[in-house]
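Methods, example record. To illustrate the input and output format used throughout this study, we show the complete record for DUF924-domain-containing protein. The sequence lines were provided to the predictor; the line carrying structure tokens was produced by it.
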Amino acid sequence: MTTLVKPALLARLRTSIPQVIDIWFEGVEAGAQSPGAAAMARWWGFQRSREENDRFNSQCREKFGAVLDDIKDLPAQSHAQQIAREMSEASTPLDKYHSVLGLVLLFDQMPRCIFPATNPLIYAHYDQIAQAVSQDAISKGLDAQANAKSMAWRLWFYMPLEHSESIEQHEQLARLLEEMKDDSPYYKNTSDFAARHHEIIEKFGRYPYRNEALGRQSTDSELEWIRQNGNPFATQ
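The corresponding predicted structure is encoded as:
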């Protein structure tokens, strides 16, 4: 089998993944149905000052900026498949679950913490890797192998679908969330948030607030929408 990703990079990923899990899920117990106030602040910026947000982002940059930089020039799809395969070769089901979930978070969330929202690599590169890893995990049932009834954990396998500009992936996300509606009081907030993203993709076929970063020409209706809404999901 041809190795596309250098062993040194895979070793760095294996070192980084447990740190991603630790920093992202600090204070969130295994099996938790709701994440708690501290995690909500960390993830969504709720009731958190800009200084607190900047400190967390700086921590992410210090820990994970180098490994993301190592991957920025790699073709997304082919390398995502190999990376996912390598990371899923863990010794126990729980280790495998954490390895792949950490990989999804590394590519889906850490670029949003580390880079400004105007950086096209977030959407054109890292999101593509995250979506490929997420879909691979879902197809193998890894998302449901551990913490299967924990919305606070399992949701993060699906976040790349919400960030996708594919209406099919948004419809897939809605189905996956529906499967969990009886397992968590966190379901309504999560599904409402996903529905708001879905509405934008359904209306425009893309996220208009990404157009400038990606060098896309906005339509008149998109410009009006941006004028009224900006980026409604930005945390800073």
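Annotations derived from this record:
Residues 1 and 82 are 10 Å apart (CA to CA).
The chain has one domain: 7-24+33-229.
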